[in-house]
Amino acid sequence: MDLNPNDLVGVSFWLVSAALLAATAFFFLERSNVSSKWRTSLTLSGLVTGIAFWHYLYMRGVWVETGTSPTVFRYIDWLLTVPLLIVEFYLILKAVTNVSSSLFYKLFLGSLVMLVFGYLGESGNMGAMPAFILSMAAWIYIIYELWAGEGAKAKNASNSASVQSAYQTMMYIVIFGWAVYPLGYFFGYLGGGADEGTLNLIYNLADFINKILFGVIIWGAAMKDSASH
Description:
By secondary structure, this protein is an all-alpha fold. It is 83% helix and 0% strand.
C-alpha cells in the first residue's frame, strides 16, 4: 500500500495509528508507577488505545486501497472502546469513594444505544436523521448522568482533589471532544451528501483526542493521587 503524500486522510490514518501504538505502550508501562487501586483504570486506557490501534491498521488499508470509509471497522472499534471509556468514570470514582453499580450500567447502556443508532444511520439501515436524533439523545443522557446525575453526586462525595479535577476534565472531553463525532456525521450524511474525506478526517481527529488524551488525564490523576499517599 503506497501512501500518497497528498492524501491528507490517509496521512491522518497513519499518524493516529502510530500515536495509538505509542499510547498503548505508555499506559501499560506506567501501571507499575501508580498505586494498585489505579492499575485497572490504566489497563483499560491501554486496552482502549490498543484495540483502536489494531482497527486503525485495517481502516487505513481500506482507505488507501479504495478511498471509501471503513464504516464497519470503525464501528467495531467504537463498540469495544467507547463503553470502556465511559466505564472509566465509574472506575476512577470507585478508586476513591463508594459508588453504586447502577452508574456503571447506566453509562454502559447509554453508550451502546448511542453507537447502535449511529451505525444504523451510517450503514443505511435506518434514516440518517432519525438515527442521528436517537443517538444524540443517548449522548445527552450520558452527559446528564455525568454532569448532574449519579456520577456527579459520587464525584462531589469524593475527597480526592485529583480525582475531582480528572473527572471534570474527562467530562468536558465527553461534552466537547465527543461533539466532533456528530459534526463528522453531519458533514458526511446530513450536510448535502457523503463527503467521505471530511468525515474520516474529523473521526480520526476525534479518536486521537478522545482515546489518547482521555487516558493521559486518568494517568495524571493516578500519579497525583498515588504520590499523595
